[in-house]
Amino acid sequence: MTQALRLGLVGLGAVGAATVRRLQEQADLLADRAGRPLQLVAVSARDAGKNRGVALDAYRWYADPLELAAAPDLDVVIELIGGAEGTARAVVTAALTQGKAVVTANKALLATHGLTLGALAAQQQVPLLFEAAVAGGVPIIKTIREALAANRISQIRGVLNGTCNDILSRMAREDCDFPHALQAAQAAGYAEADPTQDIDGYDPAQKMTILAMLAFGVALTPEQVKRSGIRHLTRHDVLQARRDGKIIRLVACATQHADGTIHLSVAPEMLLPHDPLAQLQGPMNAVIIQADLVGQLILTGAGAGGDATASAVIADVLDVARQGSACGNPFPVKLRT
Amino acid sequence: MTQALRLGLVGLGAVGAATVRRLQEQADLLADRAGRPLQLVAVSARDAGKNRGVALDAYRWYADPLELAAAPDLDVVIELIGGAEGTARAVVTAALTQGKAVVTANKALLATHGLTLGALAAQQQVPLLFEAAVAGGVPIIKTIREALAANRISQIRGVLNGTCNDILSRMAREDCDFPHALQAAQAAGYAEADPTQDIDGYDPAQKMTILAMLAFGVALTPEQVKRSGIRHLTRHDVLQARRDGKIIRLVACATQHADGTIHLSVAPEMLLPHDPLAQLQGPMNAVIIQADLVGQLILTGAGAGGDATASAVIADVLDVARQGSACGNPFPVKLRT
């Protein structure tokens, strides 16, 4: 068997811990599938003392993630810190600059700086992979980049935010107002203390920006998304929708029209019950792709959660291990003039 | 730009013609995405005179597909003849033996001789890719082999045969008996003159054998599938199902139990309307994968048709062009003792 692929992991939240756990518990299976062992060498997180339910003493601990990114004995840096700026950006930039492959789940970073980082990866001839950045365990990035590469995609439409989905489900199920449903979602761990990113639609806007750049090959920013969240929805809105036989979901959409113009939106929509997006519950995501050869392709699965997202993170690592992914620019987009 | 990837294509039915058409009409787009031009060099089919709605005079014509497989200036042979034995098998074997990559849509060949051909490809260090062999344009092979490679899969369940789906839809819609619905499906071009492969479940049994080998890493044959078709279903059966609020679909299933035993089946099932397999119409396929990290992942899309299947064929060619697919054995299975 060939040399081990040496991994460093930055950020030990739910996804990071689940990734470490799988690397430990299924080492043989993963080595079989990779054609070489995956060897976690180093980890970094803010709090060294925190119990994450997974043994970390076999790995070098870095208090400074930038030192991990610079460690000369790593092949891949897995970035699970999050955030468009600051540490995450510095870690990814440093790792790529030093010729390391990067696997990241960071939608904010890619939606904002994907073009710059993609160009850097291409220049360095190293993979920059980010399946986990959109729709958790649903392989939407690979599907667009690889499986549908013979197609012209005209539209991507999806439910990409589990928090909003959970809140909207609760409002309908419990016949309650938005603030109550938000509180319940927070208590259940489905919504964060500061829920703005989710309920105001910033999160799905970032995700759809990434998908649209990949699908249409055009440079886009999250600011171009016509964005409306669910904060203003009332119990009455949900009730009225139900009376009309409809279901409200926060839908993200990217359309390229025949003249080449692109329209990006995130907004609550009243869906008929048979719409593939209408029946999604909790953290489930679905993406409907309209493509010229294949017609309509729908992917449905867990859009959040440590394990589901770790599935995507490790799939990317396996792609690196197999040299499975092109080292070309992952955002081969045209800059719009 | 790097050297062109030189293609030879054998079999010019609906899928072959659609593949040639896309290579012609989107040459620039495909070259961009491949990182190099895709150059169709040679074609072969039984009838040189037949009008296939696509210009073929730019390509070398081979009356003998084995001569095409042996042509020294080809990098990839695309096999779209079909059938487990005879010409298709000989062409694929010859191409791999001579170090050429092979892209095929041939489910019968892979279900029966996949292990032998996979071992040959691994030995020759060339890719053998077959996304189009199962579920047409739905990227189920790539999803199992790559996107879910960090998971243990416990079950795959799907509607994999469009012909049966069309017949069952007709029986329900038109309240007619099986022979009438079959005739109508034949008249509409959805069923072949000899429909045995479809209506007796041989076709989905072959497809599920391939998926199960990939998911479970165990050698399997189509004969191990407990198979029952739809020939015996009556108008009364369909009517009774509807009275019970259910919908009949031909469901293929592969389950690996906790003790490692594998159960493969193809049989009509009475489904509740909200089952993701229940609402599929015509050539639509769906596959539900149960995996330990990701939970349930569902892929839904066109399982047949020239364009949709050509989408999968060309995606495989692009993977070859980008060196995107591992050259390892595509069937890294354990032989069962």
Q: What is the structure about, briefly put?
A:
The structure is a homodimer. Chain A has about 325 residues and is of the alpha/beta class. Helices cover about 40% and strands about 20% of the residues of chain A.
Structural commentary:
2 copies of one chain form a homodimer. The radius of gyration of chain A is 20 Å and the shape is globular. The first copy, chain A, contains 12 helices and 12 strands. In chain A, helix 1 (14-25) crosses helix 12 and helix 5 packs parallel to helix 10. By secondary structure, chain A is α/β, with parallel strands linked by helices. The mean pLDDT of chain A is 94. Chains A and B meet through helix 2, helix 6, strand 12 and helix 12 of A and helix 2, helix 6, strand 12 and helix 12 of B.
List key phrases describing it.
6-stranded mixed β-sheet, globular, homodimer, 6-stranded parallel β-sheet, 337 residues, alpha/beta
Neighbour order of strands in the largest sheet of chain A: 3-2-1-4-5-6
Compressed to H and E, one letter per element, the order of chain A equals EHHEEHEHEHEHEHHHHEHEEEEH
Number of helices of chain A: 12
| CA distance, first residue to last residue of chain A | 50 Å
What would the average pLDDT of chain A be, to the nearest integer?
A: 94
Poorly predicted regions of chain A are none
**Secondary structural class of chain A:** alpha/beta
Shape of chain A: globular
- Can you summarize the main beta sheet of chain A? 6 strands, parallel
The largest interface is: A-B, 55 and 55 residues
SS elements, strand count of chain A: 12
Q: Could you tell me the radius of gyration of chain A in angstroms?
A: 20 Å
Strand content of chain A: 15-25%
Oligomer description: homodimer
Can you give the helix content of chain A as a percent range? 25-40%
